[in-house]
Amino acid sequence: MARLDAARARRAGRGGERPLQRLRARLASGNAHKLDELRAALPDWEIALLGASDFPPEVGETYYENARTKAEFGRGLAEPDVWVLGEDSGIEVDALGGRPGIESARWSDDPVPDLLAALDGVGHRAARYVCELVALSPEGEELRGTGVLAGRVAPEPRGSEGFGYDPIFIPDATSDTVAILGNEWKQANSHRARAAQALRAAIAAPR
Fold first, then answer.
1. What is the percentage of the chain residues whose pLDDT exceeds 70?
2. Quick one: which of 7, 22, 34, 147 could link to 139 by a disulfide (CB 3.0–4.6 Å)?
């Protein structure tokens, strides 16, 4: 609490704005694809992987719980003067009651064909990508950002860029999968990019 009060006092002394151009962070993940997306979405931040050999299991009931657990884990390992980011994300399919959802990364050993098989013969294929980012400051303050990308599941995989479910996810207002739209499009428009911008706004906002 004392550290948090001190952080608030420092912000008040400089008009409530944090110097984001100098923000350094460690991502509590071993996923280089996610790191690349966050670096592209936040080009004036210095972001690196935490460098841990293992991470906590994703046993929370929400994306937020899993992201926060990772951030807290990373806070105990990272340098004391950097921010720590925890991230969790998934794809929610209406016809499957929102699944795979928070289980997206472990739902199947072969997730793309298995998801298509689960939707075989299903006409309503609405879905959304969801991402939650939790940031812990050097003083222990917690801030978060959520990003959602709505769309639908394609009938078959198309495209070669991106990763995960990108070959079968078609964002609204487009006719191509994320894997066809490509990494440059994804870095500006993905659920993770939107969560990053929401987090950036939360950190920059006067409090």
1. 89
2. 7
